[in-house]
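A further point concerns the way the authors explain their paired sequence and structure data. Showing the layout once, in full, would remove most of the difficulty. For illustration, here is how one protein appears when written out as sequence plus structure tokens:
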Amino acid sequence: MEMFSLPHTAKVNRVIPKNAFDAYTNSKQKKLFTDQILRITWLQKLSPGTVNLEAKEIQEIQIFKIELKVREDMQTLLEIIDRAIPYNIIFIIEESDSIYLSTSTKHPHPVNADNSVIDWTFKTSWFLPRLNKYSLHLKKNLDAVYHDFCIQLTGDKKMARKSLQDLVQYNKQVDALEKEITQLKKSIKNSKQYKYKVELNLLLKQRTLELKNLIS
């Protein structure tokens, strides 16, 4: 399956053994790699040497395909792979006739040079490959290519005005507010004290307005 129209020079097409990540996993996670993943393939590498684009903060973009045995939440396993590899990775997750795309911004661990720290994950819902609307535009430099791809995954073109760092911070703020709003609604429902409910409702209105203003 060719997801992106990329030059032949970017092709790698190498199967990565699942046990390559054993040093980064515990026994439970090793079992998940075995039980959930059929195959990991390093499909392509975007770098100055393969696509003739300048690298600034982002030195390389790797494209991995992960074929699943079962459709399960893959976030934990993707994070393990992401932490083990210092370059930005675009994952194509495949199960049966459906796929989804995922990529995470990250930075080097301040103490452990063998690990990366994940800042934020951008991902799509499951979709049919023939309905793919995502692409890698090889323009300007690798930073611009990756930034544009992350914007595509957000589904919000007006976010293109934000830097990658601002985009991550924005998503973290939205996520935090959405989680707080969900928790406030749960607390209001479970509370038996009228005065406490009133306080929670006021706080809920405040947080809902903050979220609305942030999104708009």
Notes: Strands lie at 11-16, 37-46, 61-68, 88-95, 98-108, 116-123. The chain has a mean pLDDT of 93.
